[in-house]
Structure to design on (804 residues):
């Protein structure tokens, strides 16, 4: 009726890349400066949505790590541990403000390097990263009131290894509490997403943070291993896979290093028959398709009460039909690229196993770009507890749907996993929410929402999802000598 | 999303009593306010540019119910509004006409004459608008007046007092009676039912009132009179769109939606279209099924339209104030 078009198709609305100033190659950030490697090499970081090479990054060797740890030790001994909490807080507030001011730059770079949609990096990752610095800046001069004694002491040098799913946000989760409590850090970002950590190094310079308080070493597994096994560190914080977490814990056995691990998950999203269905469907989508499912606390197992299963699934499928997959820099993109070729293989393999085991596979009609790493939103129905897709962490946009009849069956199925990071409960009945929250063995239980984060709320796992908490008053403990 | 398409016979008992209506309406899935607000806010971040923006602007113009509902309305004011409704931009004949002109019922005749054969409808507010505080015979007479004067569409208000005190049957039967009064001399006016969501307050009530109006035969459900704050909001419109979607799935009958009041800018209007597009889809993206009750938004749409075609912004003085 209006012109030739009858459907509302959205024209491309790409966010400009001009705001990002990519260098051809990056050194390591040690002792307040970007330095060349001593015994490392170089690797390329690519954009997973196009496979375009973005920059060359240093693969740090053991001597580089040694140098970074020495810089952190010196900064700890001579400056950072001697500053008052109020002084430390000033730096953290400054960093938080700079992150906000340069938010667009960080968002575009994150989407380029990681493949996540710009609307998520812009509206979730970067604002939350800044919020973590603001939150912990507030704690810096109030540690005496945190419940850890009148004058809790820092640990020393923290070795921090973070994953590729929320590169800057995980950096903030690690660095903000460490600095607020008086520790210095050496951080290793994931090898597929090092760029925002390197841009963060520039922020440290801009904030006049004393040299050596924050050091960034890039590299792959061996660099991380050299870092966590270094003899002069006091604390290891790791977020990543359960397999690597186990290796780290083994290598730290017998040492005095304090350890916190935030590992995998297989979160259950439980929908009761009296749930607000439209919002539950949104929560399911947010739970498993947010960030392409690259979320350790993703709600990858949908447990839906049998009496509403059909209704919920119909609504979910209709809703998935509206998801827009494509260019991560387009402001209307809902689903971006899978972070790496390796991860794509894992998602494909597990999905094929799901199909072979007899679960029903469904995806909306969805055209995948030719270049880059892509996987369509996928729903498996008729899944049972015995299927591998109900047990293994897929870390991709793949949902397994199971049903239950009673609250106790829901609890039993939800808890029947080696993991215990997150769970969601959807019901209009408050008492049932409280009952379920008590029974579910998961570090986070969301009620009528999912994947909502706040720096004031502690986050962490049960069982093979790890130990220790990040965020909130509880998160401070991991960086204090208590 | 009512479990399965309900058979005709299953609808029969529902409107028998307050109790049966209550059982049905309170059995609808609840609405979580936080979640609904989040969903509406997320859709509001859609970035609609270039071609799609031009398309959306023209569609939004065609969906407008250009409204004047003031005590100070005069025949002159209404005639001027009608001229604007037919040709919103005297400087650009390619601008489409709006959907309807919405006035009080004593001005229907004036509007009807001014609009002539332009195709622009006349909508009249009736049933003791905006409060709805009158007896049923008065409301029916009010409606008869407007229909007799030639109104193509009737915008009635529900009795919010009755709804909030649980007298659902009364609300239902009033809508049925007004719907009957919309037909006169073989000419039948479309019935829009105003829920006045600002007074209902909760989204659960909005969903229930939407269903109640649709069960009683509403052709359109409309958010607000514009006399109560808040008027239309994105989340309230989202809840109503979900209701018409579910109602059609259950009964096969399609009902239109009209947010009214508080829509002032092109950005606002486009956000509503995105909401329609991603909640109920293309079938509702048509003036027959979706309207925007507004007046000041028209000039902003015209200004943005001119900007898109000429590449330049012009000042407000280049667009008529009627």
């Amino acid at each position: 009726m209006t012109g030739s078009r009858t459907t509302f198709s959205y024209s491309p609305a790409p966010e400009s890349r001009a705001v990002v100033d990519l260098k051809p190659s990056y050194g390591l950030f040690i002792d307040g400066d970007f330095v060349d490697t001593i015994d490392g090499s170089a690797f390329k970081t690519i954009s997973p949505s196009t496979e375009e090479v973005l920059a060359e990054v240093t693969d740090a060797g053991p001597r580089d790590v040694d140098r970074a740890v020495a810089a952190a030790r010196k900064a700890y001994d001579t400056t950072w541990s001697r500053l008052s909490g109020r002084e430390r807080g000033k730096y953290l507030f400054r960093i938080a403000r700079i992150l906000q001011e340069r938010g667009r730059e960080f968002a575009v770079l994150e989407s380029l390097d990681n493949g996540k949609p710009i609307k998520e990096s812009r509206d979730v990752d970067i604002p939350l990263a800044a919020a973590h610095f603001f939150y912990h800046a507030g704690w810096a001069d109030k540690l005496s009131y945190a419940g850890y004694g009148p004058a809790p002491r820092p640990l020393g040098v923290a070795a921090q290894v973070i994953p590729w799913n929320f590169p800057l946000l995980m950096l903030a989760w690690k660095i903000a509490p460490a600095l607020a409590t008086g520790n210095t850090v050496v951080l290793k970002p994931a090898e597929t997403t090092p760029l925002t950590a390197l841009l963060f190094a520039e922020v440290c310079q801009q904030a006049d943070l004393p040299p050596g308080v924050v050091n960034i070493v890039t590299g792959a597994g061996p660099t991380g291993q050299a870092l966590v096994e270094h003899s002069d560190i006091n604390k290891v914080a790791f977020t990543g896979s359960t397999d690597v977490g186990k290796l780290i814990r083994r290598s730290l056995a017998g040492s005095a290093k304090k350890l916190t691990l935030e590992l995998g998950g297989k979160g259950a999203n439980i929908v009761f028959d009296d749930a607000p269905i439209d919002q539950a469907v949104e929560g399911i989508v947010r739970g498993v398709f947010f960030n392409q499912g690259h979320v350790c606390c993703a709600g990858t197992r949908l447990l839906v009460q049998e009496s509403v299963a059909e209704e919920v699934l119909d609504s979910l499928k209709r809703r998935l039909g509206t998801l827009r997959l494509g260019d991560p820099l387009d402001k209307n993109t809902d689903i971006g690229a899978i972070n790496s070729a390796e991860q794509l293989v894992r998602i494909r393999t597990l999905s094929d196993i799901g199909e072979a085991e007899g679960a029903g596979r469904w995806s909306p009609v969805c055209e995948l770009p030719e270049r880059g790493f892509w996987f369509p939103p996928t729903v498996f129905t008729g899944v049972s507890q015995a299927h591998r897709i109900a047990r293994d962490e897929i870390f991709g946009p793949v949902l397994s749907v199971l049903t239950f009849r009673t609250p106790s069956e829901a609890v039993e199925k939800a808890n029947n996993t080696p993991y215990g990071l997150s769970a969601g409960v959807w019901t209009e009945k408050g008492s049932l929410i409280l009952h379920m929250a008590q029974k579910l063995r998961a570090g986070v239980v969301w009620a009528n929402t999912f994947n909502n984060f706040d720096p004031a709320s502690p986050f962490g796992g049960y069982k093979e999802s790890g130990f220790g908490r990040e965020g909130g008053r509880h998160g401070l403990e991991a960086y204090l000598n208590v | 999303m009512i479990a399965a398409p309900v058979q005709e016979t299953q609808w029969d008992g529902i409107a028998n009593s307050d109790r049966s209506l209550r059982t049905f309406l309170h059995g609808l899935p609840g609405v979580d306010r936080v979640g609904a607000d989040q969903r509406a806010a997320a859709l509001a971040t859609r970035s609609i540019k270039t071609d799609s923006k031009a398309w959306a602007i023209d569609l939004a113009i065609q969906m407008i119910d250009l409204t004047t509902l003031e005590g100070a309305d005069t025949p002159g004011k209404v005639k001027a509004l009608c001229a604007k409704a037919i040709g919103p931009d005297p400087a650009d004949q390619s601008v489409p006409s709006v959907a309807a002109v919405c006035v009080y019922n004593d001005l229907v005749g004036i509007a009807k004459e001014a609009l002539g054969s332009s195709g622009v409808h006349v909508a009249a507010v009736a049933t003791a608008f905006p409060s709805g505080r009158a007896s049923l015979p008065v409301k029916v007479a009010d409606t008869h007046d407007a229909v007799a004067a030639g109104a193509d569409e009737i915008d009635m208000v529900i009795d919010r007092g009755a709804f909030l005190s649980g007298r659902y049957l009364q609300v239902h039967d009033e809508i049925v009676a007004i719907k009957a009064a919309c037909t006169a001399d073989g000419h039948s006016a479309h019935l829009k039912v105003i829920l006045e969501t600002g007074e209902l307050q909760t989204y659960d009530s909005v969903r229930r009132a939407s269903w109640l109006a649709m069960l009683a035969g509403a052709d359109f459900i409309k958010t607000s009179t514009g006399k109560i704050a808040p008027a239309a909001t994105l989340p309230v419109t989202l809840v109503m769109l979900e209701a018409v979607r579910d109602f059609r799935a259950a009964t096969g009958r399609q009902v239109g939606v009209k947010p009214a009041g508080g829509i002032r800018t092109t950005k606002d209007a486009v956000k509503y279209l995105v909401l329609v597009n991603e909640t109920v889809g293309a079938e509702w993206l048509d003036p027959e099924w979706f309207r925007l009750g507004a007046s000041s938004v028209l000039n902003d749409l015209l200004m943005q339209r001119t900007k898109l075609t000429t590449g330049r912004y012009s000042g407000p003085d280049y667009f008529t104030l009627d």
